[in-house]
Write a structure and sequence with these properties.
The structure holds 2 protein chains of 2 kinds. By secondary structure, chain A is mainly beta. Chain A has strands at about 10, 20-25, 35-40, 45-50, 65-70, 70-75, 85-95, 100, 105-110. In chain A, the strands form 2 sheets. In chain A, strands 1, 3, 4, 7, 8 and 9 form a 6-stranded mixed β-sheet that branches. In chain A, strands 2-6-5 form a 3-stranded antiparallel β-sheet, with no helix packed on it. The chains are: A mainly beta, B mainly beta.
Chain lengths: ~110, ~120
């Protein structure tokens, strides 16, 4: 199972919106509405941002939103803030109790 | 409050084995699926496998089948992940990640365990 494809880095200025893409195949992203997104700060464990393609946990800011079209899922961060600077990973269910993560995207706030 | 607490860092020699534990509290262990995810230095996250305690059934990524064993002990609400035939490229932080059975995202994460493989 190959990693889902994400851009290595995305940057934006404070207040802007940025979008991180996550491209998979018909075996994972394209076959299940089960993409989740995680935020990871250096030296810390990942933290859930989005589940089920678009669902946001109640304790996550509404500046984070998820969407999907075909084999590509996306995470949008609106109103970019300095403390959004982190690594972001998508993850998809891939059938038979298996999962696959994305390659990860480093977000830089200019 | 859900907590996953992992065992401490390990230093191992190539060819040996290591067993990392993950103790769960604040959850109904039998219905909480525990996965193991690793992260090599400077690299991304990689799903290794997971176990559903209620079924005592584990699933593994193809890459790790035959070399990784995941078990769960309901009496201690602890999951374990053992890797055999360690190689230097197994040096990584190993995380346990929990999800509620029937859901497909990882709600809770352990603090991570650094395993260093060096001669």
């Amino acid at each position: 199972q190959s990693a889902l494809t994400q851009p290595a880095s995305v940057s934006g200025s404070p207040g802007q919106s940025i979008t991180i893409s996550c491209t998979g195949t018909s075996n994972d992203v394209g076959n299940y509405n089960l993409v989740s997104w995680y935020q990871q700060f250096p030296g810390k464990a990942p933290n859930l941002l989005i589940s089920g393609d678009t669902e946001r946990p109640s304790d996550i800011s509404n500046r984070f939103s998820g969407s999907k079209s075909g084999y590509t899922a996306s995470l949008t961060i609106s109103g970019l803030q300095a403390d959004d600077e982190a690594d972001y990973y998508c993850c998809s269910y891939a059938g038979n109790s298996a999962y696959v993560f994305g390659s990860g995207t480093k977000v830089t706030v200019l | 409050q859900v907590q996953l607490v992992q065992s401490g860092a390990e230093v191992k020699k190539p060819g040996s084995s290591v067993k990392v534990s993950c103790k769960a509290s604040g959850v109904t262990f039998r219905s909480h699926v525990i996965s193991w995810v690793r992260q090599a230095p400077g690299q991304g996250l990689e799903w290794m496998g997971g176990i559903t305690p209620i079924f005592n059934s584990a699933a593994y990524a193809h890459k790790f089948q035959g070399r990784v064993t995941i078990t769960a002990d309901e009496s201690t609400t602890t999951a374990h992940m053992e890797i055999s035939s360690l190689r230097p490229e197994d040096t990584a932080i190993y995380y346990c990640a929990g999800r509620v059975s029937g859901y497909y995202h990882f709600d809770h994460w352990g603090q991570g365990t650094l395993v260093t493989v060096t001669s």
